[in-house]
């Protein structure tokens, strides 16, 4: 429905747009300062987000309601009830339907009115528009037309997409905040062309004479692209300027830190980029919801079958003996009752029965479910356990329809930065000219130490040097003042670096001070950050940067005396104060070009003219891309830097390489013109060409050093991850980081635990690099390289699969140790293959490779030995020195470290010999984006990949792009079928795809803005709250919704079966033996309240127990509370209960003996009322046997419901006889004085509930559910609330 | 609808957030036991001994109730005599042996044939008054939808019947342009057999027993629901035995025009539709004790034709107890439920003693069991 409306709107929009695009759909021409006033057919700036207009409201809103198929059914039933032969009075069927529909309509109306109010407020906002005569007049937003010249002041929101003409800021610059668009809080620079700077609103004639023609692309939804040409009419002719995103100001963003600007309206109203972006998130439905649909269909089929059977029996019976029933005058009957036309009787009987048994499909269920889900969501929002006092944020629920999914998650896809970590970057280490600086322990190390783990990938470092793994031999560990890494006087936001060689201006005395100086100078210049604050006060200065890493680097430069305090359009202002006592010197660096960062380029560069006239390209980026582009002759300290960066990576730091290149003036000019040309292109071409030009100049770099920035783990992450893993949830981390960093973060947040085997599939490791090397040597074609790489990935995956399967099951009867050996063999042969190809350049890589190999093997052997201390494991052990021996032959260094590693391994071995582990070996798969690309492209590899993943406890995907994140999630969700439920959690815009692809998306309200949170179904402010969201709320919600649905079906089925039974005794003529009103209040009043209370409040275990026993969560993954078996059980239970409820009163009120001393026998009315009494009692009291959690609210709800029945028949019977008819004084005169009536009630309740109760008791004794054991265990000594 | 709930919630949360931002207050949720879901709750735990206790207690409570109820039901004396076949076969002749239902039906429809018969019932046990007289019909679908709707509740209450009512009353809605009171087939098919009782007992005058036919309907029915100002009019003339030559061809009764509806208790009882195809209706009351050895003679006017649809007719005399008439079901079910409870209680007790399981035994946890199982299955390979 929504899509139809959207389609219609879009069509309308494109029609109106076509008129203004001069026949070419992709281009539009705007005459600046000459508003079109509708002449060109551009749409106005008035915006409407309303879904309905006053005349379309009722039909459209009803249509929205009727998207649910069940509503069609209900309406059909209501329609049938109008027929003269219907069993119930129409009003008792129509009333609930009208109530439900009205509720839905009211809500739609309320929302639409609010939308309309919001629109009106926006459309009537004032805006200053140029009137054509040099003056600005105030208009309303909605009156704005394309081509209008407008003036905006600081802090105002742009009314439409504007082309920036001039700004009061320096150099035509202005800053915009795009929080509402992409959630990013940093300011972005927009810059006008120099040619239009002077149209500043002060000179009236300039304003009047400003004429330009803007040719640009048609309206589209891409926020980050824009291309066009501005043909500027100058007194002395025409000038053409290339336009791009820096000149476009988007609606919904605001002007910041700038006095005022002038702009020309380019796109208006619904054609603005932000409006075109407003697509609703994909609608997700929970699995329980989907199976509910299936149950409804089942009920529908059952209903049809029952109705058909009834109709058939009625027709056959009437045909055979209908004419004999003289008391119904069959010969002179109405058209519906004519035994001579059994077919007509059958058809009428069929529809009649449909309405009669219609209780099987309950309309009240949908209403109840919605109420319950909203209430559950409110509980989540209100939960103090998910409130973050630091950011003053509560949890948010956007899709209450997915509440119960939270209780069944079995795979979590997590982003790393900002999700597991704080995205609060601190400058922590650096390496300059091959010397590493920085002390102190990263959190990764701390976590490893706390968990008593050897730092996973660093066996080359002796264990005792763990705290200073940087080989900083020259530093004395202790300082007399107590000043050190833990007590750092220089620490500030973004800076947590300690090294007394550098700090406090001491670096000037270092022997390569010049290099250090250049390094920090580069950090101060090579970025796109914007300073905010007073230039005179360095300590309060904040930087708005694209990423927190970048800001951290600028802060670091500041700490070392290169204080970047002001940014001009083409200049960077740096205050240099190298020694504490030196007077600061201000330098101006001319900023010539910025080659921006993109996730594809993985680097950014600036071209700067230094004050001394040197022309330099300064570049920083990922090591993989920078090292590829170094100058072969003067590459700088590549090897040392690479080694240090790898170590940084192992410590969990984010690393960047800093490099430069001196540019030749002529070469630069030549390049610059071509670059400008590329940038003035329109459309997709532009991006491509710009990137090509950038690639051209970013060659032949010289490495200066590298940086290591720490991204601290969020509070409670390791514990949360640990418990989630214990809860049987597989956790995948999808990160853009490199393999080493990811592995260490994996250790830190206990994704990779001791005794776990790591399976690494990476095209960046040494083995894979060998392919590259060989390719370079033998100059393979692109295809061949791809082919080989794919082969490599496939082989790796097969090996991993074999290993993983071998560890779990043993299908071919070979012992695990044999399997292990064969795997080691394959590894060894792979190694010797690469060795045989060994050449000088290979040596370095090889050492890495064998280290990695040794690591894998040693961990593997530890894991293996723990279960299998003799036999094959030994072979592995004997083999290792051989591998190592070869390695030593090639590269002598690191031998002792290896030995150390062995010692540690054997220590671990003896430890594990003593106590056998309780669980089988777990595996962790580490895979990189490059390999993933190959896997995602091929079906067979996908399957193999999935099979490996199923058997791994953790999966780490490194170096993945946002698109790949979403692809992986989709792959797992689709590939592993319905029984897998994926949850994606992330905080940034790059996680949106993943969040939307997963069954449940959780957003972190973090520093990177709110885009992920906006796209998500649930939003929390800390990763650790995910634990509570899943283990406590998710579990409860799943339990509540499941119980609720099952119970609901139980109770409606009872009613359905009973209407069938009563039809059996009424000749299948469709006459219910009970009063219409009793029946229509059954679901809506007599049994409505308790089920809602259960859906909202039911608990089994306390949050403390849920945290103590995370394994309890697995019941949700196994679908233990809502499955076919349980549905059948409840169905059987309802069949039994309904039989008892119907036949016990029937036998007592049979009409064959008096039911009271007065001698009267019961008629249908008396029997119906008595039967209904127990019909209300049994389902209500069933709650006491089926559920195990009762607050006073439960008791009140149950007993109020039961009481409501008695109250109802008393009140109904007390009404004047013209209302109540045959039910007049039913209770007071007929039922209440009868002893049998009261004796029957406990009897029926006992008989109806006894078997269920016995079986439940039996099960809880001998096959107790996990939660029952936990409850029983902690009944006496409850776990205190954490 | 599901997404609708989301929209609603989103609005609510947004609103709240904006308000809090404006008032600069902390967004910290307020602590209440309810909002934090910490309400004190009863979590009944079914310990084995508790279950055993509950079952045996319930059982012990049920059995006396069952015994008392059954005793009450057993104390009721009930005499039953099915007369439909006897009364018609009496008139069987060689030419008309009345072997088929059609033949019987045909006989019943013959106005010229006498249809009265006499049956006698011996009282075998002492019957304390009041003794209720019922007639019982079998295979008679009073609860057929077509039949049930063929009456006007409004008319009984003294109001003009609605159009829908009249339509439902067809073909017994009008006669000669005037509305029949009471209309419809329920009233039209009123049971019209009559019973006169005489006895051999010495203590009655002239050997006849007085049968009290008043107060056999619900008080509210005869005083309020059936109006005392409404008199039957132009009803079922064909059923009028005194004026119409071939009346009562098939059944049904004619109502006395001079008696208001509320006085016609036979009709009131009849118009309470029976729930099942076999049912009894109260006919009258004998307000004298009957002693064993008494023979009751019923002189029956066998007018009502149940032969066409294989129905049955029977006459019942029954006393009542505090529980009502003779119905052992309630007592027996109490005994059965009570017995079952005690049995189950003992089974549980036995199983618990033989194979006790400490509550909250961790070794029963699924993940503990699983790891134990793997440990066992992997142990042979470690050998």
Automatic annotation (TrEMBL), chain A:
SUPFAM superfamilies, per database record: Calcium ATPase, transduction domain A (SSF81653), Calcium ATPase, transmembrane domain M (SSF81665), HAD-like (SSF56784), Metal cation-transporting ATPase, ATP-binding domain N (SSF81660)
UniProt key word Lipid metabolism: no
Record localization: Membrane
GO biological process assignments: phospholipid translocation
Region (Disordered): 1-26, 808-875
Enzyme class: translocase
Domain P-type ATPase N-terminal: 30-93
Ranges where the P-type ATPase C-terminal domain occurs: 1013-1265
PROSITE patterns in the record: ATPASE_E1_E2
An example molecular function term from Gene Ontology annotations: ATPase-coupled intramembrane lipid transporter activity
Membrane topology of this protein: Multi-pass membrane protein
Biased composition (Polar residues): 812-828, 845-863
Catalytic reaction annotation: ATP + H2O + phospholipidSide 1 = ADP + phosphate + phospholipidSide 2
One GO term describing the cellular component: plasma membrane
Residues involved in Mg(2+) binding: 415, 417, 987, 991
Record: residues binding ATP: 415-417, 550, 597, 620, 654, 735-737, 959, 965, 990-991
EC number: 7.6.2.1
Pfam assignment, any one: PhoLip_ATPase_C
Annotated keywords: ATP-binding, Magnesium, Membrane, Metal-binding, Nucleotide-binding, Translocase, Transmembrane, Transmembrane helix
Highest taxon above the source species: Eukaryota
Spans through the membrane: 93-110, 295-316, 343-367, 1045-1068, 1080-1097, 1127-1149, 1169-1189, 1196-1215, 1235-1255
Family affiliation: Belongs to the cation transport ATPase (P-type) (TC 3.A.3) family. Type IV subfamily.
PANTHER family xref list: PHOSPHOLIPID-TRANSPORTING ATPASE, PROBABLE PHOSPHOLIPID-TRANSPORTING ATPASE
Name this protein carries in UniProt: Phospholipid-transporting ATPase
Automatic annotation (TrEMBL), chain B:
Principal subcellular localization: membrane
Transmembrane segments: 45-70, 329-351
Membrane topology per record: Multi-pass membrane protein
One annotated Gene Ontology cellular component of this protein: Golgi apparatus
Subcellular location as annotated: Membrane
Protein family according to the UniProt entry: Belongs to the CDC50/LEM3 family.
Name of the protein: ALA-interacting subunit
């Amino acid at each position: 429905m929504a899509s139809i409306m959207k389609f219609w709107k879009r069509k309308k929009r494109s029609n109106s747009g076509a008129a203004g695009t001069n026949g070419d759909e992709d281009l539009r021409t705007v005459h600046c300062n000459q508003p079109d006033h509708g002449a060109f057919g551009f749409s106005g700036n008035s915006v409407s987000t309303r879904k309905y207009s006053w005349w379309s409201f009722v039909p459209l809103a009803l249509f929205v309601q009727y998207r649910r198929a069940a509503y069609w059914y209900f309406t059909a039933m209501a329609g049938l009830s109008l027929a003269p032969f219907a069993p119930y009075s129409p009003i008792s069927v129509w009333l609930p339907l009208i109530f439900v529909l009205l509720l839905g309509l009211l809500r739609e109306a309320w929302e639409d009115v609010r939308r309309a109010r919001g629109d009106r407020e926006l459309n009537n906002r004032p805006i200053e528009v140029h009137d054509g005569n040099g003056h600005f007049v105030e208009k309303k937003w909605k009156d704005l037309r394309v081509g209008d010249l407008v003036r905006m002041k600081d802090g105002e929101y742009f009314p439409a997409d504007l082309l920036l003409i001039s700004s009061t800021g320096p150099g035509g610059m202005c800053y915009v905040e795009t929080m509402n668009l992409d959630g990013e809080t940093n300011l972005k620079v927009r810059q006008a062309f120099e040619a239009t700077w002077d149209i500043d609103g002060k000179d009236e004639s300039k304003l009047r004479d400003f004429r330009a023609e803007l040719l640009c692309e048609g309206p589209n939804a891409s926020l980050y692209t824009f291309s066009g040409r501005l043909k500027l009419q100058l007194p002395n002719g025409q000038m053409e300027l290339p336009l791009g995103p820096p000149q476009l100001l988007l609606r919904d963003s605001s002007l910041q830190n700038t006095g005022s600007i002038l702009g020309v309206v380019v796109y208006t109203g619904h054609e603005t980029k932000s409006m075109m972006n407003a697509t609703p998130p994909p609608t997700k439905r929970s699995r329980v919801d989907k199976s509910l649909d299936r149950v409804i269909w089942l009920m529908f089929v059952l209903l049809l079958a029952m109705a058909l059977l009834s109709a058939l029996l009625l027709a056959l019976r009437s045909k055979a003996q209908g004419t004999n029933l003289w008391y119904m005058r069959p010969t002179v009957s109405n058209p519906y009752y004519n035994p001579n036309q059994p077919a007509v009787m059958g058809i009428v009987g069929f529809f009649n029965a449909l309405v009669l048994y219609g209780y099987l499909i309950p309309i009240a269920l949908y209403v109840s479910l919605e109420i319950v889900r909203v209430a559950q969501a409110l509980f989540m929002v209100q939960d103090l356990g998910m409130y973050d006092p630091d950011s003053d944020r509560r949890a948010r629920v956007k899709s209450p329809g997915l509440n119960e999914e939270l209780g069944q998650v079995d795979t979590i896809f997590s982003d790393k930065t900002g999700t597991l970590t704080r995205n609060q970057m601190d400058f922590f280490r650096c390496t300059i000219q091959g010397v590493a600086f920085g002390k102190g322990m990263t959190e990764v190390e701390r976590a490893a130490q706390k968990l008593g783990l050897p730092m996973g990938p660093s066996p080359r470092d002796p264990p005792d040097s763990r705290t200073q793994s940087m080989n900083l031999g020259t530093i004395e560990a202790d300082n007399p003042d107590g000043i050190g890494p833990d007590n750092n006087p220089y620490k500030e936001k973004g800076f947590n670096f300690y090294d007394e060689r550098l700090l406090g201006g001491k670096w000037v005395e270092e022997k390569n001070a010049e290099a250090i100086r250049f390094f920090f100078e580069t950090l101060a210049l090579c970025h796109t950050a914007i300073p905010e604050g007073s230039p005179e006060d360095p300590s309060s200065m904040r930087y708005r940067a694209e990423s927190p890493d970048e800001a951290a680097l600028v802060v670091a430069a500041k700490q070392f005396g290169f204080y970047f305090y002001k940014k001009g359009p083409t200049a960077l202002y740096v205050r240099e104060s190298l020694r504490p006592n030196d007077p600061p010197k201000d330098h101006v660096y001319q900023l010539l070009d910025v080659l921006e960062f993109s996730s594809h380029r993985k680097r950014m560069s600036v071209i700067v003219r230094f004050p001394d006239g040197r022309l330099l390209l300064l570049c920083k980026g990922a090591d993989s891309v920078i090292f590829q582009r170094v100058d072969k002759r003067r590459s700088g300290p590549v090897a040392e830097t690479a080694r240090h960066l790898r170590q940084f990576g192992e410590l969990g730091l984010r690393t960047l390489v800093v490099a430069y290149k001196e540019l030749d003036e002529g070469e630069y000019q030549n390049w610059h013109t071509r670059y400008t040309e590329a940038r003035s292109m329109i459309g997709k071409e532009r991006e491509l060409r710009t990137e090509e030009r950038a690639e051209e100049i970013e060659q032949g770099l010289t490495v200066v050093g590298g940086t290591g920035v720490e991204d601290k783990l969020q509070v409670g992450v390791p514990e949360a991850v640990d418990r989630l893993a214990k809860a049987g949830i597989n956790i995948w981390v999808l990160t853009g980081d490199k393999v080493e960093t990811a592995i260490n973060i994996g250790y830190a947040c206990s994704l990779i635990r001791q005794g776990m085997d790591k399976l690494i599939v990476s095209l960046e490791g040494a083995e894979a690099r060998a392919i590259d090397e060989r390719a370079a040597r033998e100059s393979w074609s692109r295809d061949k390289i791809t082919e080989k790489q794919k082969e490599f990935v496939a082989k790796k995956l097969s090996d991993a699969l074999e290993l993983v399967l071998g560890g779990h099951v043993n299908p071919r009867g070979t012992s695990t140790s044999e399997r292990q050996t064969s795997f080691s063999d394959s590894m060894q042969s792979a190694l010797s293959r690469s060795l045989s190809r060994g050449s000088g350049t290979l040596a370095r890589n090889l050492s890495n490779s064998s280290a990695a190999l040794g690591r894998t093997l040693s961990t593997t052997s530890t894991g293996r030995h723990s279960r299998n201390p003799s036999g094959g494991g030994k072979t592995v052990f004997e083999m290792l020195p051989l591998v190592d021996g070869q390695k030593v032959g090639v590269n002598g260094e690191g031998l002792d470290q290896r030995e150390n590693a062995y010692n540690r391994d054997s220590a671990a071995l003896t430890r594990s010999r003593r106590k056998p582990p309780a669980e089988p070996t777990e595996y962790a798969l580490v895979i990189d984006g490059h390999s993933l690309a190959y896997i995602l492209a091929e079906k067979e590899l996908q399957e193999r990949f999935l099979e490996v993943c199923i058997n791994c406890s953790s999966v780490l995907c490194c170096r993945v792009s946002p698109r790949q994140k979403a692809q992986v999630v989709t792959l797992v969700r689709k590939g592993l079928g319905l029984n897998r439920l994926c949850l994606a959690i992330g905080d940034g815009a790059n996680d949106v795809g993943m969040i939307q692809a997963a069954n449940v998306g959780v957003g972190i309200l973090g520093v990177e803005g709110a885009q992920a949170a906006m796209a998500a179904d649930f939003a929390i402010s800390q990763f650790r709250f995910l634990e509570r969201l899943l283990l406590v709320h998710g579990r409860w919600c799943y339990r509540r919704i499941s119980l609720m649905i099952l119970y609901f079906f139980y109770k409606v089925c009872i009613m359905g079966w009973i209407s069938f039974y009563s039809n059996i005794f009424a000749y299948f003529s469709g006459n219910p033996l009970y009063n219409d009103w009793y029946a229509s209040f059954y679901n809506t009043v007599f049994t409505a309240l308790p089920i809602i209370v259960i859906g909202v409040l039911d608990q089994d275990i306390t949050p403390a127990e849920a945290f103590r026993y995370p394994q309890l969560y697995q019941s949700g993954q196994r679908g233990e509370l809502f499955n076919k078996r349980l549905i059948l059980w409840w169905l059987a239970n309802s069949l039994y209960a309904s039989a008892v409820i119907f036949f016990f009163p029937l036998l007592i009120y049979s009409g064959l003996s008096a039911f009271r001393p007065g001698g009267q026998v019961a008629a249908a009315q008396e029997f119906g009322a008595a039967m209904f009494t127990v019909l209300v009692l049994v389902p209500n009291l069933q709650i006491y046997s089926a559920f195990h959690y009762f607050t006073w609210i439960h008791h009140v709800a149950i007993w109020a419901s039961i009481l409501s029945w008695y109250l109802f028949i008393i009140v109904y019977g007390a009404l004047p006889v013209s209302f109540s008819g045959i039910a007049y004084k039913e209770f007071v005169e007929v039922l209440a004085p009868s002893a049998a009536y009261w004796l029957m009630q406990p009897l029926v309740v006992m008989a109806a509930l006894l078997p269920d109760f016995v079986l439940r008791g039996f099960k809880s004794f001998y096959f107790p559910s996990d939660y029952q054991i936990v409850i029983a265990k902690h009944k006496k000594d409850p776990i205190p609330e954490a | 609808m599901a997404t609708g709930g989301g929209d609603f919630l989103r609005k609510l949360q947004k609103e709240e957030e904006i308000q809090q931002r404006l008032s600069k207050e902390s967004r910290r949720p307020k602590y209440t036991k309810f909002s934090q879901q910490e309400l004190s709750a009863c979590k009944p735990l079914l310990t084995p001994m508790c279950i055993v206790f509950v079952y045996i207690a319930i059982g012990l409570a049920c059995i006396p109730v069952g015994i008392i109820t059954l005793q009450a039901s057993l104390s009721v004396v009930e005499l039953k005599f099915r007369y439909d076949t006897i009364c018609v076969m009496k008139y069987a002749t060689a030419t008309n042996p009345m072997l088929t239902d059609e033949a019987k039906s045909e006989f019943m429809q013959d106005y010229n044939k006498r249809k009265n018969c006499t049956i006698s019932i011996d009282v075998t046990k002492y019957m304390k008054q009041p003794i209720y007289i019922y007639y019982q019909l079998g295979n008679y679908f009073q609860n057929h939808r077509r039949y049930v709707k063929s009456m006007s509740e409004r008319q009984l209450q003294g109001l003009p019947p609605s159009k829908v009512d009249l339509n439902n009353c067809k073909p017994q809605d009008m006669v000669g342009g005037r509305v029949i009171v009471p209309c419809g087939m329920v009233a039209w098919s009123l049971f019209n057999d009559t019973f006169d009782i005489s006895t051999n007992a010495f203590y009655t005058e002239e050997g006849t027993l007085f049968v009290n036919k008043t107060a056999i309907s619900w008080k509210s029915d005869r005083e309020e629901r059936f109006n005392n100002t409404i008199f039957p009019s132009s009803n079922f003339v064909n059923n009028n035995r005194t004026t119409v030559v071939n009346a009562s061809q098939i059944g049904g009764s004619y109502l006395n025009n001079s008696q208001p509806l509320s006085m016609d208790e036979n009709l009131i009882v009849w118009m309470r539709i029976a729930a099942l195809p076999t049912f009894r209706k109260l006919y009258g009351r004998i307000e004298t004790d009957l002693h064993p050895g008494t023979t009751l003679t019923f002189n029956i006017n066998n007018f009502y034709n149940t032969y066409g649809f294989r129905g049955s007719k029977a006459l019942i005399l029954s006393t009542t107890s505090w529980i009502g008439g003779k119905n052992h079901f309630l007592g027996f079910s109490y005994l059965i439920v009570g017995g079952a409870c005690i049995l189950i209680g003992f089974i549980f007790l036995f199983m618990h003693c033989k194979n006790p399981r400490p509550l909250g035994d961790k070794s029963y946890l699924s993940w503990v069991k699983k790891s134990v199982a793997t440990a066992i299955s992997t142990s042979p390979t470690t050998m």
